[in-house]
Design brief:
Bound molecules: alpha-D-glucopyranose
Strand content: 25-35%
Strand order of the largest sheet: 1-2-9-10-11-12-19-16-15-14
Largest sheet: 10 strands, antiparallel
Structural class: alpha+beta
Length: about 800
């Protein structure tokens, strides 16, 4: 790997060059305060909501890409450089970026001076801490100046990028000691402010961008830094910034560490002011005092590392394949936490001002983190369920700050309700916490109209059968999982969004075979849960409906060699060999086979063989084939993308795991493994330049075989791909599945792969599960011993809280 490599020992990805094919980023923060940070120090911070509480500015889709960040400049005898290469872009003698779990360190060297900046957000703190380590590696003493730089965002990121007639007049700051305070709009309705501090006396500062840069320069050439002389400017309107200047002298070989803190603070309404127009800064000063010394800051950094070690210890695989180990034990779980925290809000592809939390997205993200953060998962489930309506339908999105459903987008995506069944049943199986089912949860956030969570699931289940179309298959509504299959939209107006436009017609014809498959798959989980809580009548009713739906799929959803995708609003087939384009789709093959439809009569096998023949290529499995070459008004957004991109025949990494799970259902481990390794980031070392996005995380989409540039990835980080791939490898391929009675052991392993052990926490007990394969292909469980005793069947019963258990599984 020329651009970087995995340092497994330290759980870091090490980047060797600032000139990566695309900014390679990391996420800092785990609670309420977050930052995005690229390998050249680009990115921004926000408190809770990337739209309404953004602290620092970032210029999306600008040139050079990745503009705006947490920058440093050094002026060493007239040579101006940045440790992260950007923004100064002076050639460095050496450069390295280490993205770790919840922190990043970027180090540059120039003229015998080394500067390394470690960025992180301490656990529970609403502030980013930056430890700057400066070392003089020469045998002479050195005197130089260090300049920090952030540009304030005027809080509402959308307004900040648009409302210039007002915003050029509102900016306000204060400077006291070594702290720069940002207080735009604090005089009126805001009772929050931001601050940026350093634990050393200043040689100077700037808070006015035009003074710092000069209006005709970019961030690469700040006038003040080049002149090496501060104006100590105070911003009045225009664009407020925060830049500290420190004069530093280092003896030969001397090293010095500084601590910068970039934080967010709220004051009570009646406690906002110290004196007229002067912020009450008590809160900020308390935060700054907690990181007054490098030792304090490093202890907080250790806290972040300990948090991750503790969490990742909950699930550890030990196999002969180091790439698998690093995916499963570190990077895939890490990405699962990031998607859980961020949903689809803020990445380098999601601007943070658009979508809130998606109903379907957040339910799916949950399945990747329940074993890591059961309590937060529980709360999230209740928040999501509260945006559901009494008839089971749901707001498609909700805002994280208010937890209210987003009326601007509304509902009517008919797959949404079913994802709640998935997250809740995964949660109850993992935790054994049935009490969540009895919690009274509002419908549409109305505290006066509530139902138990179990009643919400029933509403989800019924929502599907209350909305069936002419073939007895579920009506699709605006779309199902595939946001771009808009069968009722018929849009001719380029100013309309396919997602938010109300459907034309009554929507009583277009049906989704995918939702039918989902209903059978998740419906079985619902029935199992009903049995578990003793409601056998409801379980039986559910099973009857499921059988009826399976029959409808076999009768009207089968195309001869694969499952159809849908019927459009005219009742015509979508995803059939009779179509001129879009003859086969991935989603219905995945969900129908996962659900077990057609396992008994060869349909399932035929469907997966067709997937391999028509959809698979070296880079993964495409969403459909052949891609649409023109706009089809009856199909909507799917046909708007050029061939091979996004939903129009791109490799949507999110749904590739459905095919992997389906292959395990058929008992074809080799195929499941092949699909897993085709897209798992750690296996792509030879494709990094082509892929472009971060080599340590999944991207939402890789351009498909019909694309102009097959194999090029986009939309890294925030994608359901993370949770689904973790779920698939952990539960279906390595095959340790939480179930109501205990851990079901049912692996589906490729030949010649040695799985030594899986260490796992489960309901408060610890399990070390060792595997013995009696032949290189052996994958059927023939014997299980728990603490030396052979058990009957494949379920290891849940053991006493706090116990340490040894399980030996023999495969033959
Ligand atoms: C995006 C959306 C997700 C949708 C998928 C397919 O990833 O976030 O909700 O299911 O696209 O269209
Ligand atoms: C577009 C994208 C899809 C995404 C949707 C979200 O349709 O193609 O992936 O889910 O926007 O609004």
């Amino acid at each position: 790997m020329s651009l970087g490599y995995f340092d497994d020992q330290r759980r870091e990805y090490v980047i060797n060059t600032p000139k990566t094919p695309y900014p390679w980023i990391n996420y800092l923060g785990n609670d309420e305060f977050f930052s995005l940070l690229s390998n050249t120090a680009g990115g921004y911070s926000f408190y809770k909501d990337a739209k309404f509480r953004r602290l620092t500015r970032f210029r999306y889709n600008n040139v050079p890409v990745d503009t705006g960040g947490k920058y440093f400049y050094i002026n060493d005898g007239g040579c101006v450089w940045s440790p992260a290469w950007k923004p100064a872009r002076t050639d460095l003698d050496s450069y390295e970026c280490r993205h770790g779990l919840g922190y990043s360190t970027i180090e540059g060297q120039k003229q015998g001076l080394s500067a390394a900046v470690t960025y992180f957000i301490p656990m529970g703190e609403n502030a980013e801490v930056q430890i700057v380590r400066l070392k003089n590696t020469t045998d002479q003493s050195k005197t130089f100046k260090l300049y920090s730089f952030v540009e304030w965002c005027l809080w509402n990121a959308e307004d900040d990028g648009a409302n210039f007639q007002r915003n050029f007049s509102t900016g306000e700051v204060e400077v006291e000691d070594s702290v720069i305070y940002h207080k735009t709009e604090y005089r009126e309705r805001r009772n929050h402010y931001a601050f940026y501090s350093v634990n050393a006396p200043l040689a100077g500062f700037e808070t006015d961008r035009d003074t710092f840069l000069d209006n005709s320069n970019g961030f690469d050439h700040p006038d003040v830094v080049y002149a090496n002389e501060n104006q100590n400017s105070i911003a009045h309107g225009w664009s407020p910034i925060a830049s500290h200047c420190l004069e530093i002298e280092l003896a030969a070989g001397e090293e010095r560490e500084l601590v910068f803190v970039l934080g967010y603070q709220e004051n009570a309404e009646d406690d906002k002011w110290e004196s007229k127009a002067v912020i009450n800064k008590t809160g900020a000063k308390e935060v700054i005092a907690r990181y007054a010394t490098p030792e304090q800051a490093k202890a907080a950094l250790q806290g972040v590392t300990d948090y991750w070690s503790d969490r990742l210890d909950n699930y550890v695989v030990d196999s002969s394949d180091e790439r698998l180990n690093r995916m499963v034990n570190v990077w895939n779980q890490y990405q699962c936490m990031v998607t859980f925290n961020f949903s689809r809000s803020a990445s380098f592809f999601e601007s943070g001002i658009g979508r809130g939390m998606g109903f379907r997205d957040s339910n799916q993200d949950l399945i990747g983190v329940i074993h890591l953060e059961p309590e937060r998962a529980r709360q999230r489930i209740l928040d999501i369920a509260a945006t559901q309506f009494e008839d089971g339908s749901a707001y498609h999105q909700y805002q994280p700050l208010t937890k209210r459903g987003n009326a601007a987008i509304g509902g009517n995506f008919n797959d949404d309700p079913l994802w709640l069944i998935q997250s809740v049943t995964q949660y109850t199986k993992e935790t054994g916490d049935f009490s969540i089912l009895d919690v009274q949860v509002p419908f549409n956030n109305d505290e006066n109209n509530t139902g138990t969570l179990l009643a919400h699931l029933k509403a989800s289940f019924n929502h599907v059968i209350n909305k069936l179309g002419p073939h007895g298959l579920p009506l699709i509504g605006r779309a199902d999982w595939n946001d771009c299959l808009n069968l009722n939209c018929f849009s001719k107006d380029p100013n309309e969004s396919f997602q938010t436009t109300e459907n034309k017609g009554d929507g009583k014809v277009a049906e989704s075979v995918m939702i039918a498959g989902m209903f059978v798959y998740f419906g079985q989980d619902y029935a199992e849960l009903c049995k578990e809580v003793g409601d056998n009548a409801e379980a039986d009713r559910a099973l009857t409906e499921i059988t009826r739906m399976s029959d409808a799929i076999k009768q009207h959803g089968w195309d001869g060699e694969w499952f159809l995708r849908a019927y459009d609003a005219a009742g015509d087939k979508v995803g059939s060999k009779e179509c001129d384009e879009g003859q086969i789709f991935i989603e219905s093959q995945g969900f129908c086979v996962m659900a077990g439809v057609g396992l008994e009569d060869g349909k399932a096998e035929a469907a997966l063989n067709s997937v391999e023949e028509h959809l698979s290529c070296d880079y993964g499995v495409s969403l459909l084939y052949p891609a649409y070459t023109e706009y089809k008004i009856n199909l909507g957004e799917i046909s708007t993308y050029p061939q091979g991109y996004k939903e129009n025949g791109g490799i949507f990494c999110h749904n590739n795991p459905w095919i992997m799970i389906a292959e395990t259902k058929l008992g074809r481990p080799q195929k499941a493994w092949e699909y897993y390794t085709k897209i798992a980031p750690a296996y792509q070392d030879d494709k990094i330049e082509l892929h472009k996005t971060e080599p340590y995380v999944y991207a939402q989409m890789i351009a498909g075989k019909e694309a102009f540039k097959p194999g090029e990835a986009k939309n890294s980080w925030l994608t359901g791909t993370a949770a689904w791939n973790f779920h698939t490898i952990a539960e279906h391929i390595l095959g340790v599945k939480p179930s109501y009675k205990g851990l079901l052991i049912d692996p589906c392993l490729p030949a010649d792969f040695s799985l030594n052990a899986i260490k796992r926490q489960f309901r408060g007990a610890s399990y070390n599960i060792e595997f013995i394969r009696q032949s290189p292909e052996a994958t059927k469980v023939s014997k299980i011993e728990v603490n030396g005793q052979e058990i009957a069947g494949q379920v290891v019963p849940a053991q006493a809280q706090g116990s340490d258990n040894k399980v030996v599984v023999t495969l033959s």
